[in-house]
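Researcher: Structure prediction, please.
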Amino acid sequence: MSDKRRGVPGGIVGWIGALLFPPLFFLAVQGADPMRGSATSVPALVALVLPLGLVARRPVLGLLVLLSGWFIAPAAGPDLPAEVGYLMVAVNDLVIAYLAATRRRRVSLPAAVLTVALQLLYTAVMTHGNAMVNAAVAVLLATVAAWIAGDSFGERRAHAEALRAQATAQAVTAERLRIARELHDMVAHSIGIIAIQAGVGARVIDTRPDEARKALAAIETTSRDTLSGLRRMLGALRRTDAGAEEAAPLDPAPGLADLDRLAAATGDAGVRVEVRWVGERRPLPAEIDLSAYRIVQEAVTNVVRHAGTDACRVTIEQHDGEVAIEIVDDGTGRPPGPGGYGITGMHERVGLLNGGLTAGPRPEGGFRVAARLPLPEPVR
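Model: Predicted structure follows.
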């Protein structure tokens, strides 16, 4: 059943209550005895509650129905009990507060002005002297207070909704950047290796078929690794429920333990990668392990594509509080060309982990990338 159909019975009840209000309020006021105090205000209260069902759906129209009570009361008799008048003001002001909280000021302000005008008009006609002044001041203050309270609540709610929308937009942007970094780091390296191996194979296929076969085998291995990574990423994107079962087992995300395989693939592309470990090798948190690997991967890819050298050195140094990564080469020292996102992605990765990164030419020649990734405090 649609939401529209579910709302029909409530709407009918609201309209019925609004239609019953004028005659029932007239009878309640006509039968009220000013000498009997609050006991006579119960029927009036019941009548005043009837239009509230309409107020919940069409507050402006519901308010107009309630305001008709200020014309019904004089017609029913000149002796309106004070308790009934207070009830009318209270119910009117509740609706004004609701309007101020749920509608724009261009709607709620005219409604408040009309309400207080009718209340003051009734006060001026039905009371005199000091009683009229006291009642007018009380009516005015009550309506103004109701509107201010409702407007403040509406402002806070709108502010909270804006903050939620902003947080959602930031989360979406952060996720898009994360996916962009993963795709760039994974695909750019693989395509670079494939392109170099394809060029090697094309040049030696007639003269050195064994070298061509090695190039094709490297292309196949790199392609399979990239396809596995893409499947892992797409599987994570498609997984809408954290507890959902996966259709097929996925390879774990890469980490520093995969540097030897990265070095072998890069060596097949013509650039020898020397990996040095300093300090005790210990398991790292998954996010830091992945980011460290991607930084090395991107830096090595830049060496292959831009450095014009056949070797580079990767140093991984683990301390109690951080992981230090350095990638240096003796090439041209030329940074990647404009339009690339590799170094930007490295800065983003390091920034998300509250670390630091420098990348630029070395004074003695070549290029250097250095990153520091702080480690979380061990749980005691």
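Model: The beta strands are 272-278, 311-318, 322-329, 356-361, 367-374.
Researcher: Thanks, that helps.
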